[in-house]
Amino acid sequence: MHELEAQFEQFVGEVAEPPRVARYAVNEAMIRNWVEAHDDRNPVYVDRDAARATGRDDLICPPAMITTWVMQGYRRWREVQQLRAEGQQESHAYSRLLALLDDHGFTSVVATGQEQEYLRELHPGDRVTCHFTIESISPLKRTGLGLGCFITLRKRYVDQRDELVVDERFVILRFNPGSKEIA
After folding, report:
1. Which end of the chain is more exposed for a tag (fewer CB within 10 A), N or C?
2. In sequence order, what E strands does 42-162 have?
3. Residue 89 phi/psi, 5° resolution?
4. Contact 105/179 with Cβ under 8 angstroms?
5. Sign (positive/negative) of CA torsion 74, 16, 156, 24?
């Protein structure tokens, strides 16, 4: 396993994948669906008069909704899974890292942490792009799910003017499900 850990350093600081450009501009329909699903009744998300009463020019997007704008969709997910099943990988660093971990049995994943700093509000019509960097990879650790490593992705969300909107650290545990100790 030391050979595997020694390879982690080549990925740290690398651009994880090409920038993810939102398929859709921030829009009222998706905001309404999101706040309804979360039963969020803050009127500044759906009522222009309420938003203006707070000194804003327009509706705002719930800050925690930021990741939804750059989700790639189910078709893209299926393409990636097909490539993995065929033992292929894309050329970007994150794909190469996951393939390396796959080859060593670390095939399962769970999100373990997320920190977001919101720098400005999004409004309908804004366009979001996310830039991913592999910030760190922990040494292999024994966890309740099995042996694995924690990967921290730094995600910087920018708007159509390339102004930083949200700075995020997203941590996943990539683990070997067959290595879990039986209690």
Report:
1. C
2. 108-118, 129-137, 141-143, 146-158
3. -145, 155
4. yes
5. negative
What would the pLDDT profile of 44-79 be if each residue is shown by its tens digit? 999 999 999 999 999 999 999 999 999 988 998 899
Q: Tens digits of per-residue pLDDT, 149-174?
A: 999 999 999 999 999 999 999 999 99
pLDDT of 15 reads 98
Contact 8, 149 (CB under 8 A): yes
Cβ atoms of 14 and 29 closer than 8 Å = no
Joined together, the tokens standing for residue 16 give: 């994880």
Which homologous superfamily does the CATH classification assign to the domain defined by 1-26+72-175?
Hotdog Thioesterase (3.10.129.10)
Closest CA to 67 of 17, 132, 11, 12: 132
Tell me the pLDDT band of 87, cut-offs 50, 70 and 90.
Answer: confident
Instruction: Return the pLDDT at 182.
Output: 53
Going from N- to C-terminal start, the domains of the chain cover 1-26+72-175, 27-60
Q: Which residues pair with residue 141 across a beta bridge?
A: 148
Report pTM: 0.90
Output the CA angle 60-66-69, nearest 5 degrees.
100
H helices within 14-152, ranges in order?
Answer: 28-37, 48-53, 74-85, 93-103
CA distances from 100 to 87, 146, 177 (A): 11, 17, 16
